[in-house]
Amino acid sequence: MRGLRILLIVVVILGVLFVIADRVAVHFAEGEAADKLKTTESLAETPDVDIKGFPFLTQLAGGSLDDVEVGIGEYDAATGKAGRTIRVEDLKAHMKGVEFSGDYSSATAATATGTGTVSYAELLKTAKSEPTQVAPGASARVTGLSDGGNGKIKVAVELSAPALGIKQTVSVLSSVSVVDGRVEVHADSLPSLAGAVIAEDRIRTITDFQQAIDQLPGGIKLDKVQAAPKGVEISVKGSDVRLAG
User: Fold this and answer.
1) Strand ranges of the sheet holding 221-228, from the earlier edge strand across to the other edge
2) Per-residue pLDDT band at 53 (split at 50, 70, 90)
């Protein structure tokens, strides 16, 4: 019996040591992966990397991780216009089937899904905030974006026709969607300017606009968008997503 007790104690101690070693190893790996991702994506801050699953060491030995989550506080995505970016906040990516090279210099996820938020202030930079002529003697510009409720964006449009003594701001409820890989804001109905006749296609050059969100980490792509209280929530997805190397 004494021998059995000693054996059980040894097994328990070894088990505890394995768990400790496993957690130390995964913590080290997360730090290394975060540093590598920061360098690869030229991030201002070190991202959060969370390697899921237990034990980690057996996954490491197999050369593949089941589940990895990456969190980036702020990411400046490309807009397709030289020198201009759009900031995505709280970008989180969920990677599945992450395989890495023998020297750990590169890692690729079989699939990835994620979410992030583009504030209304950021999206407003895309809209025409300078007065634009929409009819003889009449101009319009977008002055603000906000949550319109029920998945809509409220677009504040300032309409002006000095000769008619008109200057007013109207609100337009707009739908937001992904069209050809871009965020598209499209007015459900158009504002009217008392006394001024404005063709629909002219006023839509102000109320409707698109914004590209490109070159996201690892090559993930824009999938869906949804208006929310603090901004436009985006969903992204991808396959063969390169995390490093």
Assistant:
1) 48-51, 64-78, 85-100, 107-119, 231-244, 221-228
2) confident
What pTM was computed for the model?
Answer: 0.83
Q: 9 pLDDT band (50/70/90 cuts)?
A: low
**Under 8 Å between Cβ of 100 and 88:** no
